[in-house]
Amino acid sequence: MTVPVITLNNGLEIPQIGLGVFLMTDENETDWAVKQAIYAGYRHFDTAAAYGNEAVLGKALKESGIIREQLFLTSKVWNNMQGYEKTKQAFEESCEKLGTDYLDLYLIHWYGLDVKGTWQAMEELYEAGRIKAIGVSNFTIEHLESMKEYAKIKPMVNQIETHPYFPQNELRAYMEKEGIAHEAWGPLSQGKTDLLFHPVLQELADKHDKTTAQIVLRWHIERGTIIIPKSVNPGRINENISITDFSLTAEEMEKIAGIDMNTRYGRIPNDHEFIERTSKE
Ligand code: NAD
Hints:
Blueprint: E1 5-7, E2 13-15, E3 19-20, H1 27-40, E4 44-46, H2 54-64, E5 72-77, H3 84-98, E6 103-108, H4 115-127, E7 131-137, H5 141-147, E8 157-161, H6 169-178, E9 181-185, H7 199-208, H8 212-222, E10 226-227, H9 234-241, H10 250-257, H11 272-280
Parallel strand pairs: 3-4, 4-5, 5-6, 6-7, 7-8, 8-9, 9-10
Antiparallel strand pairs: 1-2
Helix pairs in contact: 1-2, 1-9, 2-3, 3-4, 7-8
The chain binds nicotinamide-adenine-dinucleotide.
Nicotinamide-adenine-dinucleotide is lined by residues 20-22, 46, 109, 137-138, 159, 185-191, 196, 213, 228-231, 236, 239-240.
């Protein structure tokens, strides 16, 4: 399986398809899913301190026998660890749990209470070679603009909710202009919508002899977005990476653009109550 790569603004290559492990809380299930993913050809894994599964992921990867240099590991600093000192501590804790001494990508999970101090710590870890690329998640245009006041290094990635019902066209255009790679979370809309039953996608799935999930994931690939679909089901894990043997025409991409509902299903980036609460926990 050859997975395409995206080159980030610092020259680092990131596999365009990875496995997201949000809500993988059962240890045996997570262990099994990660090993199935390795077998299917995944080398890129997206976790976060907040997911509580870094240690299980790290152990499964070690047992898979794949050498560290062939893996691409992302984790994220949680809201209650924002700030210069705490971020450095959070980074070390994530590395220890994952069984590694560096991360390929480290993200600020949400625009929290001390983004400036957090970013400064990440810049230093990046300059020291402990993180290969640094970025953010759930950041808006305003958030990204505000970082320009102090950031020495521009974020390489912004990981944001994106799927055909919420294609993020405005933020996406801004990030393209700024050289910030677009990474989609909830690429299948988290199973929260009827997206995978949409007639336009069903028609394209029939035409290409693929599933509607594969059509959606291919749409992301054609847009140059990095995707991290989550599944613990071996068949779906395999299905979600088996999208490199077909392509969508410009006309088909237009059809999918037509089902945009400009509707977010996940948390809004400026949920102040959530940010305040989780910064204290
Ligand atoms: P997703 O869009 O990947 O959807 C996952 C759901 O889709 C699961 O319920 C799964 O059973 C189902 N599914 C997966 N493959 C399928 C297939 N082929 N056919 C039918 N159904 C299928 O949503 P997600 O897990 O929330 O997002 C992916 C990853 O993004 C997460 O695992 C996590 O790593 C990351 N994430 C990040 C943030 C953030 O704030 N940065 C938020 C949410 C998720």
